[in-house]
Amino acid sequence: MFNQDVMTYRLTGAWQIQVRVNSIEVTLEVTPQKRCQVQDEYHASVQEYNPKAGGYARGTVLRGVKADKCSTRYAFVPDSLTVKLAEPPHDTLQSGRDFQLEPEWGNIGCLPGGRLAAQQPVLCSYQHTKQRLDAIVKTKDGNIVLRQGVPHVCLPVPPPLEDGDTHLANVFIDVTTTALTDDLIFPILEKAFPEPPRTTPTPAEQLLPKTVARLKSGQPLRILAWGDSVTCGSFVDEQDRWQCQFVRRLQQAFPGAVIELLTEAWDGRSTGSYLQEPPGSIHNYQEKVLDLKPDLVISEFVNDAGTAPEIICDRYQKLHQDFTAIGAEWIILTPHYVRPDWMGLTSQKNIDADPRPYVKTIRKLAADNGIALADAALRHGRLWRQGIPYNTLMTNAINHPNAAGLKLFADALIALF
Predict the structure, then answer these.
(1) Residue 78 backbone zone (phi > 0: left; psi -120 to 50: alpha; other: beta)
(2) 3-class secondary structure for 91-146?
(3) Long-range Cβ pairs for the range 20-24 (8 Å, 24+)
(4) CB within 8 A of 217, min separation 6: which ones?
């Protein structure tokens, strides 16, 4: 049940919150974060320590802090690690001599000249923390209670509601939380993203007339999803990738449509990377994008977000001209929110306005040039209003959304039609 009650709160202790709903006032005790003890975690081998790599990729990740293809930063408890050789007599290894620890990311790598060879099994004992989302609810009897969520290193979810519950707020316990703060309390302000009223003609009918004509007539429609790792979607099931979610919904909206979905994606790269690839490259722009002769291109490039606005303007103008030349229409997806510090954010609340110049640039460019824009960023920026700290949707705790996060792309796309 959605919250129709007026809830106010104030923090009255490190782990205590006073909640008032209408005339009912209670004090709730939040269970502090607990350290998890891992004993003798077996690793068949340890990679060589690479100081030149990003912190998350310098060594072998300890499983307790492991996220998708990396780890959750700060989940590892510093000074808690003991590493022993797995084979008798189980010699204890020395950090800085036999192996190097990356403490922020919880990974280790063997060092040249040390007693640990890359293919030697080890036993690792250490402590780590997890995230948690607790729910403040009003029960069907009118009581205000706190229900504890299941801890997870990077993808915590609130506990399921019981029959008759009204969900009032979530309390976020991060891996580094030592006391509650206002930034960790997420009142439920809206049930879902407030969809704009449907217009006639629709945005797609105005900006994507050839696409809509094919959908309605049953002529084949070739859609190219073009992007980076978020479009590649190797971290979710294929059916959960944003383009697959979107095409399923598009097919439901136009049952007689004949839709072909193609994907061209390159992990960790940008539109500029494609344009720089020579002929014959597996990611050459001409061969892998334009020569596919798509009817509709949908581009998603969160990796363009660090590029200067003037470069983006020139580059996207070129892309628009190229797509027009082959008869293709274009939808630009604005990117999801990524790890807060990468966006200059200090909180996951009150973040409706995306601070990235890239997002402002492509919104204006699309409006000025009659290009369809699916504003996923707008939806990610309102997750806090639904009680969700947006980064709890990241499978790698950085920038790879889970199925629920990718659904917001599909939501933004289908809203055009």
Answers:
(1) beta
(2) CECCECCCEEEECCCCEEEECCCCCCCCCCCEEEEEEECCEEEEEEEECCCCCEEE
(3) 21/138, 21/144, 21/168, 24/142, 24/144
(4) none
Q: How far apart are CA 220 and CA 152, in angstroms?
A: 44
Q: What is the structure's pLDDT at 4?
A: 62
Cα angle at 410 between 407 and 411, to 5 degrees?
85
The two tokens of residue 234 are: 């190797």
Apex CA 70: angle with CA 66 and CA 75, to 5°?
Answer: 50
**Interior/surface letters 344-354, b for 16+ CB within 10 angstroms, e for the rest:** ebeebbebeeb
Give the neighbor-by-neighbor strand order of the sheet with 7-13.
Answer: 7-13, 16-21, 24-29
- Residue 412: how many CA atoms within 13 Å on its side-chain side? 26
Q: Where are the domains of the chain?
A: 7-33+130-187, 36-128, 203-414
Structure tokens at 25: 């006032």
> Residue 272 class from Cβ within 10 Å (0-12 exposed, 13-18 middle, 19+ buried)?
middle
Counting as low any pLDDT under 70, the low residues of the chain are 1-4
pLDDT at position 74: 97
Do 221 and 203 form a contact (C-beta atoms < 8 A)? no
**Average pLDDT for the chain:** 97
Distance between first and last Cα of the chain: 29
Q: Tens of pLDDT along 21-60?
A: 999 999 999 999 999 999 999 999 999 999 999 999 999 9
CATH superfamily of 203-414: SGNH hydrolase (3.40.50.1110)
